Amino acid sequence: MSIKYVPKELPIDDNVNVTRRHPLKNFIYLLGTVVIISIIIFVLLGYTASWLATRIGADNEIRVGKLLYNTISETEVIDDRRIYYLDELLHDMLDVDEIARLPLTIHLLDTEIVNAAIMPGGHVLINTGLLQKVKSENELAFILSHELGHFQHQDPLKSLGRSLVVVSALAAVGIGTSSSSGGLSDIVSWTGELTILHYSRNQETKADEYGLARVINHYGHGGHSLDFFNGFQKFEDGERQLSQVSQYFASHPENQERIDYLNTLAVQKGWNMEGELTSLPDWIHCPDMDEEQCEAEN
Ligand SMILES: [Zn+2]
Ligand 1: distance of its center to the CA of 272 in Å? Predict the structure, then answer.
């Protein structure tokens, strides 16, 4: 390809008949090509990275999981009966002959933010804020099973692979590399945050399907399991403020759409979506040490 250069001293008006395409157009064309090729490379890298990430092996996943977990800044509640309860409920949700890909560890994090997540290496993060808002074991069981579904499908690893590409690309153009802390630790912590939030719509649907199937398995019905997601109007009555639950929903698809889909799926599969509510333990909102105070409040 040859490019015709126009002598600088010529007035712009004379250029029109000299070049077939204005230099600015050429530049935009070139820039556009570079951007499109970069996006294609970026997307391919993302797919490759997420594919590779699922092949790092159990030992490496455990190592990466520990590294990522250490970037979580919330205070972890330790030696509390709520942890044992959550651990038992989570394991009860596995199918009869199903085993978790890796040993699962419940981490109860002391924060008002309503959230739950699962990380590579089998770290299950449950915020105390979530325990304050759930009204039945059925709701909690669905949330735990949904997260378990992500883990069994290796979603956290895939997301980690993609996030590494995103963060590396941002770092390459100088975004996110603060001078105060080291590049790698930045990348790891950024990746950790991105990992928690970024699943595709398809991954969410699959996790929902898995979650509801396990709930049906465990309780024999899906009654009350979707109450937590049952429309935002419920959350606006002051009982469950929208702002308090937004963190969980920010990372999850439109709730009404999700509930409608799951109800349709239940009809197709012949799953019963009506049934008795299983109560949470009375002490679910209370740390061990505040038992008396908690009972007085509730
Ligand atoms: Zn999810």
Answer: 23
How, if at all, do strands 105-109 and 123-127 pair? parallel
Going from the Cα of 14 to the center of ligand 1, the distance in angstroms, rounded, reads 61
pTM for the full predicted model:
0.78
**182-223 tens-digit pLDDT:** 455 555 555 555 545 578 889 999 999 999 999 999 999 999
Of 131, 142, 135, 111, give the one whose Cα is nearest residue 212: 142
pLDDT in tens, 214-257: 999 999 999 999 988 774 444 544 444 444 455 566 556 677 78
Residue 150 CA, ligand 1 centroid: distance in Å: 7
Residue 197 CA to ligand 1 center (angstroms) comes to: 8
Domains in the chain: boundaries: 12-50, 54-297
> b or e along 84-105 (b: 16 or more beta carbons within 10 Å of the residue's beta carbon)?
ebbbebbeebbeeeeeeebebb
